Amino acid sequence: MKPNLLSWEETLFRDPDVFDLNYVPEQFDYRDEQTQSLVFAIRPALRGSKILDTVCRGPPGTGKTTSVKKVFDSLREATQQVIPIHVNCRIDASEYAVFTRIYTALTKRSPPPSGTSVKQIIDMIARYLEQEKVQPVVCLDDANYLIYENQFNKTLYPLLRMHEIFPSINFGLIIIISDPEIDLQNSLEIRVQSTFHPEVIQYPPYSAREIAGILNERVKQGLYPKVLGPELLDIIIAHVMKHGDVRLGLDLIKRSVLYAEKAARTAVIEEDIAKAVEASRDLHLEMLISSLADDERLVLRIAAELFSEETSPTTKEIMEALPDGAPKLTRVSEIFKRLDRLRLIDLEYSNQGGGRRRYVHIHEDRDMLLAILSRSE
Ligand SMILES: Nc1ncnc2c1ncn2[C@@H]1O[C@H](COP(=O)(O)OP(=O)(O)O)[C@@H](O)[C@H]1O
Ligand SMILES: [Mg+2]
Hints:
Layout: H1 32-42, E1 54-57, H2 64-78, E2 82-88, H3 95-107, H4 118-132, E3 135-141, H5 144-148, H6 152-165, E4 172-177, H7 184-187, H8 190-193, E5 199-202, H9 208-222, H10 230-243, H11 246-262, H12 270-290, H13 294-306, H14 315-321, H15 329-341, E6 345-350, E7 357-362, H16 366-375
Parallel strand pairs: 1-4, 1-5, 2-3, 3-4
Antiparallel strand pairs: 6-7
Helix pairs in contact: 1-2, 3-4, 9-10, 9-11, 10-11, 10-12, 11-12, 12-16, 13-14, 13-15, 13-16
Adenosine-5'-diphosphate binds next to helix 2 and helix 11.
């Protein structure tokens, strides 16, 4: 009997885009309160006054970006006087990059020529705003990357001060912080603290029931009926709850269906999910590593290179192995502490053999870690 091969154009996906992490879903439940708070904060802009500066906080995958994008979409529909600008600080992780992004998003022109100073770009932005009589609302998404790179205060300060220099301009600020470890007040310089009094909106992790609701909805939209039965989705949900990140669920569904397609089946079986779980085991680590700052990745890589089954390097040995131009001692100690908190390394203190030493153990499989690190460079 001939195997039941799917022909090329046949697919189990009704709409594969639905499982993309950047997809903005039609249905967005469980975040009404947060979305209403955002609307409330932004609404003054419609009357020409300043919005309430807002900070959105919560771990990754809790709907922060999606809620802001949705509110921005409806703002665009409601008015042309207020211009929402979304800046992804993972990509634009410096003061210069953020202002360049704001400038190009507003003017739709190409970036200013290299050599243009930040101050000049800010002036160009201000002139444009005055001329066009529009109010900007900027979302600095994943602004924790600016904090890691020591660019946060530098970026915030001119945005907060703009109104004093150009009285007709009210920059509205929405700041998303996706690293629960960050103590925001502590990250602010005094000069920023005195002008920045944001509303804070919390995004708690989703419960199992909410994750199930979100994934169920996506399955209905993205897959043909009966491709992924409810008992199988339950297996995926149980797995997702171990990490609590809905993005893992989207990834697992997509992978399982691809495996079923590859095997020319018309429905997912348990084995596909097991394979998907295996393949996405690195995903969590990969996301964690891609969330690190460059210097943190460097320290982690050197630590992993020096680490073996037999010996663990000391922090001193790692410091000495860092290349020229690497971060200074105080920053490196901070990095060790952060990597330890993220459970990427374990720091072990020892007083043996005189003198206090700190040993660095690699928490994850060393080779896998190095492979992911080299991919993310
Ligand atoms: N309440 C929800 N309903 C539907 N999809 C959601 C919901 N919350 C998050 N998602 C989906 O989960 C993924 C992560 O959401 P995102 O807004 O990027 O989270 P965050 O910015 O907090 O990391 C996205 O693909 C998004 O579409
Ligand atoms: Mg986000």
